[in-house]
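Re: the request from the purification team.
They wanted to know what the chain is likely to look like in 3D before they choose a buffer screen. I agreed to run a prediction and write the result into the notebook, where they can find it.
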Amino acid sequence: MTSTPRLDRITAGGTNEVFDRIRLADGHTLSLKTRPGADTADEVFLFPGLTVPNTEAWENEDQWEGWLTGGDLGGEPLYLDVPIDAVRDLILQHGGEHEDQESEEPAPGTEEAAPDLLPQIAYLHGRFKDGYTPDDVRNVFECIYTAGGPYLVCVWDYADEYGFGGDSQFYAEDEDGDLFEVQPDIHQWLSGQQETPGRMDTWVCAPVTEPTEFPVGDDFHNYARLDRTGG
């Protein structure tokens, strides 16, 4: 096994136009977006505390036009068209990939600073402008959760042999399975109707009072109120 198995898997299969996170052995984190079998990553985002060498491979930095922060991303840059070999070298410089890719433990030296999470998900702006599918929900909501946001779910009218369908509504779900209303800003931002989704700590609102036991779920951000699968 190589010391970069997660990167190898990501580069082989691509990221389906969303970012996929890699946690490094020393606790630092990066996320990247790439196409299946590509030699370059379309975009590489560095989480707080991680820096790159001053080489040609990392020279194409996107300034994001001050999105959300008036020109200040707090030192977390986005790089475009980075060779996969350069990403691999960076990972190896930090000891390879961490054994626990799911941990949210902060990187060394960043424990004292509460990071602004919104710049880390800025690339999701407008992702639902042409509508969304259950797969879109899985990808986008997992990116938000991985970045430290709430665990969002989408509740559809029904699920049938073709999957989830009908009208849908977003909620937040806690570890006990209880649902909470969320600000409409989230949907409007993901749909490209407004520039920011508001502060992340304001997203989750009052508990849902109606019954929230759904007959169908994919255990990954989607539920259905009605089961039409015939199972």
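For the purification team: Confidence is low (pLDDT under 50) at residues 64-75, 110-115.
Please add any questions underneath this entry.
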